[in-house]
């Protein structure tokens, strides 16, 4: 299985598949066996943490070669992904001007515009003419520009004055100046703009790049859509994992070791377990009722899980709508009214099904004794109550979390289910006591 | 609240918020009140269905103006989103050459490369020189090109020969030909390449555009990264909604009416409800045990929901890993072994907690009678079994669905919870019978 002994030619796909389970020696050996252009593609496909590990395993000369393949904003991610004590080594393998850029970018958090931006953008003065600009950019393109689909017009003190798309630059008459053809309605991000907000800006307007400015309007860099694509994917993955009741993983599923996986999953499971212990306490309060009418216990899982299901629907819909900014904090009242109505209708529907099931079974097979109708009404009403409560609580909890500046996605399906289980037991047995006391209770 | 009577100036944000609840007259009135540049931004921010509705509500002259703002690939989405009988009206408002392009694109499904591509890309002949190419593109940019960051080199019969990035074109000496500077290792998509696969291509390699070719290698169009950003967001939303146990919504949460919402949610709820009815049947089989030892019913919700929680964790992790291609169908064995181990460890941890809870409460408050230890062992062993089963079943079900060509995301948290509830009851009472018969049973 190790590439050094494999008789057939090694492909980048084989290597990618085996990567997580290979020793560092085998990774280096495998990587060196790839043809240069395949190696570059393979290197690009690794995430920042994997690139950092590989670079540190390679010889210093090789590391120098490979880290220089990266754009400064990607090099920053690699340096940040390396262990603290090895970062200096990686920085040392960069050429001097890139090292300066990377060091400046290292000051920003990974998940804000400053941490995502590239300092390599095309900037021009407002009085430059179109033909001069094109000539100048042809020279600059030889050097290092991350993108040239927008050209930014800046003042002498680096204040952003306007933007010209490359297409407009190309289409403009040669003797116009930048000032004449630039658009001044520029959407900008601040250095500390959160990556989620950035991705909404890109998604809504279809930008290819957004300039990042500081508090005084001075241009600092640009964030490009390809970096945002990663952000969007990563944010969705985090939300999905949280909705499933796990802490967000920091690497692909198969790359997280068993211990790491336990750390990510045990936390929530234990919290939920303690939450569920309350169900035992709640149940203990109704032990007499269960002893008198064991039939009540029989329908318990059906009832509480119906509430958990409707709650999980409502919470995931609201979590996603909040993440996409389709719903804002101030919309909570509208969402509340909708979910009360929808929860009531869904609950009524399932409640009738539950009632019919019991009355039907009683009529057909004579089960449930003479009080089948009363039992059916108890079950039906409980389902209605629990589903209504599940939908309402599930829809409101993400708002509460957002209001407290916590992540709405923490209102996970298991969390809602646990919450609804506890209250569901109370609802069920309270209704049972009201309806059935004097008959089967 | 209707814009026509609002005394304060209408902003596009106000309009966007009120949009779903406005009548079509008010929408048109509000839209007409926006300043032209704001109106264009607002129009861009609507989704295709909303654009279609608005265009059909506007006067034919206005509709003609606004539909021409759209690139052909976006115009296609709008036409597809309109009711069948009104599509001809929309097509008629396009200029003739765009109408031809749009009609050609209408033949493709929305979610494949053909349905996402734009026919407006820059194409050049292989023997064109760099300076000629730049001059030619300056002329073309005046016309309509969706993007100019890549230039495609095609033969006389439109076969794709190579690609030149705009940056390389700019940096190349004026007298080189396209053939000399083009890259021939072009990653292409087929017209029927699925949008999920396309987004993985973009995510892995950071492309800005990918050319779409037919079976004979003839160039048909390009898919650009900004369209892929929408695809990635949309696919994640669908997966999140399915994981929550809802059918995917086709519009933002607040734009789906109550009836539409019921349709999306009732289906799964009813299926799950019938699934949960099996729990009642399973429980009925253990009525004697419950009657003898009511205490068993008390711990039932705790036990089955622990399984549901670990199952929901495993299934969401695997669903997302499959969606991102981090895990493939053939990896099922590896995932199975991991989840058995992780499920065992998590189950053992929670099982010990459950055991301690009962033994502890017994020691402190004298609850649970003389057989507290046996009861604790029953609860602990059941939790272990149920959590292990939850993790394993939750991780395997998405593979089974993918194998059957169904969407792995249908292995929703509520679905797994229901599946695990039924089996959890069997596991719990079977262990209870084994351990407790002769003591409290």
Number of strands of chain A: 6
Low-confidence stretches of chain A: 1-7
Indicate the multimeric state.
Answer: homodimer
N-to-C span of chain A: 67 Å
Averaging pLDDT over every residue of chain A, what do you get? 87
User: Quick one: biggest sheet of chain A?
Assistant: 3 strands, mixed
Number of helices of chain A: 21
Give, in spatial order, the strands making up the sheet with the most strands of chain A.
1-2-3
Structural class by sheet pairing and helices of chain A:
mainly alpha
- Most extensive interface between two protein chains, with residue counts: A-B, 114 and 114 residues
Cα Rg of chain A: 30 Å
Percentage of residues in DSSP E strands of chain A: 5-15%
How would you portray this structure in words?
Two copies of one chain form a homodimer. With 441 residues, the first copy, chain A, is mainly alpha-helical. Chain A has helices spanning 12-18, 24-33, 36-45, 48-57, 60-67, 72-81, 87-92, 96-105, 113-116, 130-142, 166-171, 178-181, 195-205, 225-243, 258-284, 287-292, 295-298, 300-323, 332-365, 372-403, 413-436, and strands at 122-124, 150-154, 160-165, 189-190, 209-213, 219-224. In chain A, the strands form two sheets. In chain A, strands 1-2-3 form a three-stranded mixed β-sheet. A three-stranded mixed β-sheet of chain A has the order 4-5-6. In chain A, helix 4 runs antiparallel to helix 5 and helix 13 (195-205) crosses helix 14 (225-243). In chain A, 46% of the residues are buried. Chains A and B meet through helix 3, helix 10, helix 11, helix 13 and helix 14 of A and helix 3, helix 10, helix 11, helix 13 and helix 14 of B.
